[in-house]
Amino acid sequence: MNTGQKKKTQPSDMEVQVLSSTIISNGDQHTKVTQIPLTIFDRSTLNFHIPIIYAFKPAAATNTTLKEGLIKTLVHFPTLVGRFGETNPGLPCILFGGGESRGTLFVEATVEENLENYLPLEPSIDTKSFYPPTEEAETLIQVQLNRFACGGLVIAITIHHWVADGQSMGSFFTAWGRSVRGLDVAPLPVYDQSMLAPRHPPRCDFEFWGVEFVPLSLISHSYNEALSEFNPNVRNILAHYSKEFISTKLKGQLQQKYSTFELLTAHLWRKITEARGLHPMALTQIRVAVNGRRRLTPPAPKEYFGNLVISAFSNAIVKDLLDGTLEHTAGLVSDGVRQVGDSYLRSFIDFGFINEREVLMPNTDVEGTVLSPNLEVDSWLGLNFDEMDFGCGGRLCSFLPGWVPVEGVVILIPSLDEDDKGGVDVIVTMLEEHAKLFRQISHSLA
């Protein structure tokens, strides 16, 4: 059986001992209070901290050096140390400056074993001990340094998703590394929201109720049941797809050209659907996170800090998906993404303006912990997560998201395998009863 996975069994008895927990605050009490309104893109994301875990082989930078670099970096990213509040008209915003900043939770911990015993890191629930609890977090960003006996280091960062999307998180991680290495933060983040202003008059050419948001009138008792249906059988699976497999095995089936993301997403959609054993006539939908920066006209700067991601959707009947070709499925994914252009994004912005005083409940908040027969796909390819560098000779050897408790999530990550540049690691969340078959067929071309 070829699972494409290159990993060791991670010990389940890992003991992380917290040595200290402090709040880093660089807020100036005498500065003017600044309000950054939450945009419709911010309000459509998860009301949750997103944890990301990095592992560095020795020799890693010292905790003091990392802390000093973090303090210098946060000066340029003030929303990360702020707090949620309301503007004078009563609209949701981020407040910072003038004593409104909350700061950063900074935790130092040790593990009395060698990091090598845990590499490569696996998407296990045990990794939750690497980062502070994300529920009811007091600060918008939390950092935990986990120092191993060998000198290796695991850094876990959690950032509230209303404050930053993947593009923004990647920019912050890169900036922190530059500060630790004694370099200036460049390019600087951009907070100007003028490119997200509504049209005059605003108009919605597309429907977003029922697509991005659920009308509160449709949320019933079943909503509460969905929230409480935590399933302990959800597994996080790590699969590796080599550059050779993607370029030869998958792209060799195509007549048209598709991106690695479109092609691998199509392959995974088919294999996960097969592993789930869905009814042939069931409808399956895939939701893809699309970076809107380059899709606006004119484009928003890459350095825009906040959220500028929106979902693209593709649908298929299970039988058609499994009986069809990989190329057909890749076309479905590509067509869905292509629909997200400037007019779609402008309509979404106008929708936010028209409904700015409404209580907006994102669909993702009411879907529960099992997405089947649907999928949610997030790509970390090209987000600079893999470029985090603190110097000192310590090489980034593993990185992955924190534990994902929801079935039906797929995350594409650039592989750090030095012998397989261009390969992709994939996190797939599945129910335990489907995971065995998925591992068997994850690289099947049938």
Protein model, in words:
There is one protein chain. The protein is α+β, with helices and mostly antiparallel strands and 446 residues long. The chain has two domains: 17-195, Chloramphenicol Acetyltransferase, CATH 3.30.559; 213-382 and 389-441, 2-Layer Sandwich (Chloramphenicol Acetyltransferase). The chain is 24% helix and 24% strand. The protein contains ten helices and 17 strands. The strands form four sheets. The protein has a six-stranded mixed β-sheet with strand order 1-6-7-8-3-15, with helices on one face. A hairpin with a 5-residue loop joins strand 4 and strand 5 (92-96). Helix 2 (63-74) crosses helix 3 and helix 6 (260-276) crosses helix 10. It starts with 16 loop residues before the first strand and ends in a 5-residue tail after the last helix. The model is unreliable at 1-7 and 220-229 (pLDDT under 50).
Descriptors:
single chain; 446 residues; alpha+beta; Chloramphenicol Acetyltransferase; 2 domains; 10 helices; 17 strands; 24% strand; globular; disordered N terminus
Brief digest:
By secondary structure, the chain is of the alpha+beta class. The chain has helices at 40-43, 63-74, 166-180, 221-227, 243-250, 260-276, 318-323, 326-338, 342-354, 432-441; strands at residues 17-24, 34-37, 49-56, 83-86, 92-96, 104-111, 141-148, 153-160, 213-214, 234-241, 283-291, 309-317, 361-362, 375-379, 396-401, 409-414, 424-431. It has a six-stranded mixed beta sheet with strand order 1-6-7-8-3-15, with helices on one face.
